[in-house]
Amino acid sequence: MNTKEVNVFNHMKRSVKCIANRHDYLEIGEIFIEDKLEVGKIYTMIKGQRTSYGCMIFLDEVESECGFQHYLFEEMKEYDSSLLKRDNEKFIKRLLQNTLARTKYTTEEGKM
Fold this sequence. Notes:
Helix content is 28%, strand content 35%. Strands 1-8-2-5-6-7 form a six-stranded antiparallel beta sheet.
């Protein structure tokens, strides 16, 4: 299956299209308006990252300390959605390994 969902794990600088500038981030009916974004406009994505508050992208044309939610944009070309799934699984695996390593270090340190 193909998708245009922005892959924040792909770190290539590229064009993305803004598809929305209003969103219910908290899913409680409170609408956030990203007034710096223009729907339909093409922006240059310079960075993507997954954080505790979502998958964020950063744009060359619009400064933002925290970035913008990835679902406000779409890739210019469709790609195989299994690539996004694979990249997401790699991220989660790395996160779990780092967490386990820190836990082991903390536990061993506590034994001293």
